[in-house]
Structure to design on (317 residues):
């Protein structure tokens, strides 16, 4: 989806609608038109005592986009503007992003970032991505006018290598990685998101207020992998958020009940997209304590606390 501005008036349109607008504008002569959107990926790298993340993102006008990389550690976050981040298509259709002197791929990260606030260098190698069975958006990927489209590139993979960020060394030996992406024109106004690895469990969940065609609904997407077996909770499968409040989310789908509750956060400010511009401030705890519980027919499948979870909570309640 794109935000289009014509003579100062903004509206949202799909790619097909955009092409029709461009064709119409060309037929009537000179039209002042601005097209904005965003696209970014989230690379999380965790080990026993630390968790860091990198977000290469491209945003703004279609033909003169801005770009940058957000660097997130346990106690600080930085946004480093970069020129012309490129999303490169590969023969294997794997992810490859060139951001200045840095490279982000599904095979690993080569990091070389420097500005007045942050110096980050190093290299990390990834094992093969653990992909989900099918698109996390399900049939919703065909819906027009969505603010944001989510993707899950890898639920988990082993990471090995070394990084140095502002003089601090990070040594990863069989650490855990996670990759996801977002594209569109804005993050949802209210939402919650969490991700975690714990022993042989990897999970992610997002719950958001979704506006579409003048209506709103609470959408749910979640994937939980236990010993390699995939469980999916999603609106298009009948999932509903039965409780949202005070940093706690409860989702039910059939006989399944999933709880994620923030116990101790460590919020850092991040830049987020709003109408194709990185003008919004959200808050993420990249390394925090969260309780997770999954039940089937009131029988516990797991119940654990993790100090290495990530959590964003942008609901008002």
């Amino acid at each position: 989806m794109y935000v289009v501005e014509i003579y100062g008036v903004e509206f949202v349109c799909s790619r097909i609608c955009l092409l029709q607008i461009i064709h119409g504008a060309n037929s009537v002569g000179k039209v002042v038109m601005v097209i904005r959107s965003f696209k970014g990926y989230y690379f999380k790298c965790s080990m026993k005592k630390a968790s860091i993340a990198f977000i290469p993102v491209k945003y703004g006008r279609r033909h003169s986009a801005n770009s940058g990389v957000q660097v997130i550690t346990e106690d600080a976050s930085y946004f480093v503007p970069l020129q012309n981040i490129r999303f490169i298509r590969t023969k294997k259709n794997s992810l490859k992003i060139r951001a200045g002197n840095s490279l982000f791929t599904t095979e690993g990260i080569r990091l070389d970032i420097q500005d007045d606030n942050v110096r980050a260098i190093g290299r990390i190698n990834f094992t093969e991505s653990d992909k989900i069975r099918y698109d996390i958006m399900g049939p919703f990927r065909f819906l027009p006018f969505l603010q944001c489209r989510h993707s899950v590139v890898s639920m988990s993979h082993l990471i090995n290598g070394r990084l140095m960020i502002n003089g601090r060394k990070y040594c990863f030996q069989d650490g855990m990685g996670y990759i996801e992406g977002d594209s569109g024109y804005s993050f949802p106004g209210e939402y919650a998101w969490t991700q975690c690895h714990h022993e042989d469990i990897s999970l992610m969940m997002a719950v958001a207020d979704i506006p579409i065609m003048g209506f709103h609904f609470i959408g749910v997407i979640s994937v939980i992998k236990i010993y390699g077996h995939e469980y999916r909770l999603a609106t298009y499968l009948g999932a509903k958020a039965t409780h949202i409040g005070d940093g706690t989310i409860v989702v039910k789908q059939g006989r399944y009940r999933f709880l994620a509750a923030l116990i101790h956060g460590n919020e850092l400010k991040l830049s987020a997209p709003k109408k194709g511009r990185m003008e919004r401030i959200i808050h993420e705890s990249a390394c925090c304590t969260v309780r997770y519980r999954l039940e089937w027919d009131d029988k516990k499948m797991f119940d654990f606390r993790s100090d290495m979870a990530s959590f964003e909570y942008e609901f008002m309640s």
Summary: Residues 24-33 have pLDDT under 50 and may be disordered. The two ends are 29 Å apart (CA to CA).
